[in-house]
Amino acid sequence: xxxxQYQPIxxxxxxxxxxxxxxxxxxxxxxxxxxxxxxxxxxxxYEPLSYVWGAPNFDCSFICDGKLVPITTSLDHGLRRxxxxxxxxxxxxxxxxINQQDTAERGSQVQFMNAIYKHxxxxxxxxxxxxxxxxxxxxxxxRSLSDTLDxxxxxAKFRADHTSEMLAQRCEEDWAPMKALTRLPWFExxxxxxxxxxxxxxxxxxxxxxxxxxxxxxxxxxxxxxHHLRRHFDIETSKVKFVFQRFVPPDVATRHANRLSFIYExxxxxxxxxxxxxxxxxxxxxHYSVTGRELRGLAANYDADTGTLPNVYMNAAARTLVxxxxxxxxxxxxxxxxxxxxxxxxxxxxxxxxYREKAGDRHCMPSWVPDWRTYTSHILSEPTSPHRACGTGxxxxxxxxxxxxxxxxxxxxxxxxxxxxxxxxxxxxxxVEPGKPTLIEQLWREVCGYEVDTSGGGGDxxxxxxxxxxxxxxxxxxxxxxxxxxxxxxxxxQTLSNGASSGQREHESRDGFFRxxxxxxxxxxxxxxLTHTMTAAGDREAVSPELRLLATSxxxxxxxEWSRSANGATSNRVFARTTKGxxxxxxxxxAKSDRICVLWxxxxxxxxxxxxxxxxxxxxxxxxxxxMNGEAVRQMEGxxxxxxxxxxx
Length: 649
Hints:
Blueprint: E1 14-20, E2 30-37, E3 47-50, E4 60-64, E5 67-71, H1 73-82, E6 89-92, H2 94-97, H3 103-109, H4 113-118, E7 123-128, H5 135-150, H6 152-161, H7 172-182, H8 192-195, E8 202-206, E9 209-212, H9 213-222, H10 227-233, H11 237-243, H12 262-268, H13 279-282, H14 292-296, H15 309-323, H16 335-338, H17 349-359, E10 400-403, E11 406-420, H18 439-446, H19 488-496, E12 506-508, E13 514-516, H20 519-536, H21 545-552, H22 560-570, E14 573-578, E15 583-587, E16 595-599, E17 605-612, E18 615-624, H23 631-637, E19 643-648
Parallel strand pairs: 2-4, 3-6, 3-7, 7-8, 18-19
Antiparallel strand pairs: 1-2, 1-6, 4-5, 8-9, 10-11, 11-14, 11-16, 11-19, 12-13, 14-15, 15-18, 16-17, 17-18
Helix pairs in contact: 5-6, 5-7, 5-9, 9-11, 20-21, 20-22
């Protein structure tokens, strides 16, 4: 049988739609293609299929209009599962409906994907074969959980039976099928974010079993509050929640307003998998965050010459920087630069030249362009963050020009890093080992340079006290008008928790809104953590009585809220100190001699690494205590700092 030959799609706003012929399980797969105008999508019945391509081996065949189209084994299994025995079914399947050999057509057809799934009668989801015979058990378990959590009495009993103390008595085998369900590869595929991310109803097919998509999401959402349960049984409900209605605009009154940022959405999806890494950008081109003339001009480009990976990522970065996010109503805060996360970075001009020579010009990624294949930490300067390192005046808008592969941007150098820790591990502030120095103590001694105060100047023989003031021994000790020196220990605790920013210090309620925590309560949490941790380590007297008293006020408890925020903020980041005594929380590749800068338009400070005169590598965003509310702008206005133009390469 001869191969199917695709004819170009000539009509605008048109896709191909597949009619899947009926058949018995072992019958060959067959059907026919017809052009479909997307203007009719909201009025005609069709069902797109969402599935994982699997290995790119086209070992199976589909008979299209009497001719062969090679398809993957995964699609063969999926089409056989959804095929009806007695009537045809109109479906959209990317592997057949798009000519995969035509890179120009692939690029042009991507623009329709969001509309295809949004207007569908129902989305059909093929999760894959049930190789472990777990599908029926998993779906039945989810339905049972749904009934339990919807009933007040049953839910109360479930809660009592699944406290952290009772979990050891629960049977792990009961939860094993749901663990397997949430670990299926489909939940980590980049394209499913828009395929399942609309309000269209969807049905999940796993082997011979099936269930409603919304029911699975609802159960996973209700399990959010059962943190210890999810960790104990290794249930990855976050993967399910992440993809649910990701392409539906959020309630802007909640922290979900972050999703209005295109860069934020690309960053949040860094954990997903993509066979072609360019799809990490292209899969979001139908997202509601794609606003403004610059960003709307971004198109999928699979061309081997012009659509290289560095070109695609740099094009996205340049357009978001130039566009600035103003059309979406967001203050972008240079979030594009904040999303830059390096696993390693050249330490000198010679190293940078060596990297460029090894990578080749076509494959060299500028340091200021986010590489969406890598992930180290969440973004500190997310759109809802209250930080304003650049202030709120005229310099709150970026002053930048994209010049080839370089970015020219204005700002000021504030200081130089002199001490830096090793990268901090995830959940570094949870574990306390009796008899061993705690991390909170190590950083205080080794990076901040503090020891037990025996001078009688307020420390009164304690390692942690309210006596020493932040940067009090530095040469530029004079405070600016209106500024007040805070205790060094509080500057330390705030730096490690990203300044207790609103994103870190608010609790989300069931209705999606947040309850703010007062400054006093937050400081009490930090003091409570110090007291609890040092006591557990066998050195209660390291914390002064004033701090221990503060720990008992304002509901300080054991400092769990502070440690949660610190663990989130410091994961894979470095804690550092500068020449002038500033405390810094920066990227994992931050090192001594890096420059701490404020770039106009940035919510956070940024760390730059000098190469030669005027040229720098972007190391990444950083929190610097005492520079997060326009202080550098005031210093420049007082002629203490000088504006510069930095060339980022």
